[in-house]
């Protein structure tokens, strides 16, 4: 879960190697789009935030996967139900985009091997992770499943996924976004400049006609002076996922809203935030490459652009509703390992609460599911809709 305590913005200084490199680039060629700045901050091959070791992330924020294995166990049950809905294909591709070090993959596969043996025999788990440093951990985290042929590790989505599910957990919120502003009735883009001492915001024309089209297709009109983010990469990603998927599902776990809420008057400054040391700020220029940058996901856009690749909206539920629906079938018996003592059981129940509490992760995160090549699927995780 991303941190929630507010922090004071400070003037950016060239205190990181990436800051120095970006300053030199801007001096030489002029201001860059915020999307390009964010891409470098997060994914620069040498200095980007997500190229750093996993331990650094825990110092800044944690995700549902880090709280308790029940998240992965219940997700495994949902994947098994998808396998059932597809008619038990001999090979079911469970493709996790943004797999990190393989923690979620291990939770899902360990549970499936133990509790869902028939499903496990058909699973071809693909842990997709762009960072080579994090992919190296897959050999350790998934050793048994790699040796059995139930899992594989790679740097990009497979070109062809005959049947299965492409899923992600807190991935799309970290895709680079364009920042825009409605000024005198016209959309302007917010660029990143450099004044000789620090990074600055510079307004200019839109870098792509797709930005205006993005708002037009969703029938969204910003208010005068309103700032907003546009995640064109997420639109392209969902289309590509749909194209590569033959039959099955795309499941996205992230924090976000439908477009009408995402761009309403409550979000006049947008949703972009920076996370560092469990502190959240709006100082996007502090220590480039050393802090996480995220923006809320637009589920309406995923729906609309997914349709271009044959994806149909299955449903969207809060993480609380999704996990409760999957867990109540056996009264959350998956929460504790066999032989757990009473202290361990109490601790597990407390951790579960943090995943489903309405004021915590439970309502902050949503599970958005799309399907392709399967008629009107019934999924337990969406049963409460």
Walkthrough of the structure:
With 385 residues, this protein is an alpha/beta fold. It has two domains: 145 residues, Rossmann fold; 178 residues, Rossmann fold. It has 17 helices and 16 strands. Strands 2, 3, 4, 5, 10, 14, 15 and 16 form an eight-stranded mixed beta sheet that branches. The radius of gyration is 21 Å and the shape is globular.
Describe what is shown at a glance:
The protein is α/β, with parallel strands linked by helices and 385 residues long. The protein has helices at residues 17-29, 34-43, 54-60, 64-67, 70-85, 103-115, 117-122, 132-135, 138-141, 143-148, 209-217, 232-244, 259-262, 299-307, 319-327, 342-356, 361-364, and strands spanning 32-33, 92-97, 123-128, 151-154, 161-169, 178-183, 186-194, 199-204, 227-230, 245-257, 273-276, 279-281, 292-294, 297-298, 312-318, 365-372.
List the helices and strands and how they pair.
Blueprint (H helix, E strand, L loop, with lengths): L16 H13 L2 E2 H10 L10 H7 L3 H4 L2 H16 L6 E6 L5 H13 L1 H6 E6 L3 H4 L2 H4 L1 H6 L2 E4 L6 E9 L8 E6 L2 E9 L4 E6 L4 H9 L9 E4 L1 H13 E13 L1 H4 L10 E4 L2 E3 L10 E3 L2 E2 H9 L4 E7 H9 L14 H15 L4 H4 E8 L13
Parallel strand pairs: 2-3, 2-5, 3-4, 5-10, 10-14
Antiparallel strand pairs: 1-7, 6-7, 6-9, 7-8, 10-16, 11-12, 11-13, 15-16
Features of the shown structure:
about 375 residues; alpha/beta; Rossmann fold; 8-stranded mixed β-sheet; 5-stranded antiparallel β-sheet; 17 helices; about 40% helix; about 25% strand; globular
């Amino acid at each position: 879960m991303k941190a929630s305590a507010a922090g004071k913005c400070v003037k950016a200084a060239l205190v990181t190697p990436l800051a120095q490199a970006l300053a030199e680039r801007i001096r030489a060629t002029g201001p860059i789009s915020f999307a390009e700045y964010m891409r470098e901050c997060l994914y620069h091959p040498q200095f980007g935030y997500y190229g750093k070791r996993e331990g650094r992330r825990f110092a800044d924020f944690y995700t549902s996967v880090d709280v308790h294995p029940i998240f992965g166990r219940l997700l495994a049950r949902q994947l098994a139900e998808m396998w059932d809905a597809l008619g038990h294909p001999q090979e079911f591709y469970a493709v996790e985009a943004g797999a990190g070090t393989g923690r979620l993959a291990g939770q899902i596969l360990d549970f499936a091997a133990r509790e869902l043996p028939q499903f496990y025999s058909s699973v071809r788990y693909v842990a997709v992770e762009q960072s080579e440093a994090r992919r190296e951990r897959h050999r350790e985290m998934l050793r048994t499943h790699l040796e059995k042929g139930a899992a594989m590790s790679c740097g990009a989505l497979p070109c062809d996924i005959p049947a299965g599910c492409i899923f992600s957990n807190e991935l799309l919120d970290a895709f680079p976004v364009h920042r825009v502003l409605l000024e005198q009735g016209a959309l302007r883009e917010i660029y990143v400049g450099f004044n000789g001492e620090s990074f600055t915001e510079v307004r200019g024309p839109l870098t792509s006609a797709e930005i205006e089209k993005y708002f037009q297709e969703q029938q969204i009109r910003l208010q005068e002076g309103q700032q907003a983010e546009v995640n064109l990469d997420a639109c392209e990603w969902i289309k590509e996922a749909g194209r590569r998927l033959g039959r099955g599902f795309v499941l996205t776990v992230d924090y976000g809203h439908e477009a009408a809420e995402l761009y309403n008057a409550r979000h006049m400054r947008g949703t972009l935030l920076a996370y560092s040391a469990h502190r959240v700020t709006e100082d996007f220029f502090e220590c480039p490459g050393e802090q996480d940058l995220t923006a809320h996901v637009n589920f309406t856009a995923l729906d609309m652009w997914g349709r271009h690749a044959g994806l149909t909206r299955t449903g969207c539920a809060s993480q609380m509703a999704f996990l409760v629906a999957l867990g109540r079938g056996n009264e959350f018996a998956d929460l504790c390992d066999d032989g757990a003592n009473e202290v361990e059981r109490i601790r597990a129940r407390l951790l579960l609460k943090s995943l489903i509490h309405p004021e915590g992760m439970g309502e902050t995160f949503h599970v958005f599911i799309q399907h392709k090549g399967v008629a009107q699927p019934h999924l337990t995780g969406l049963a409460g809709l």
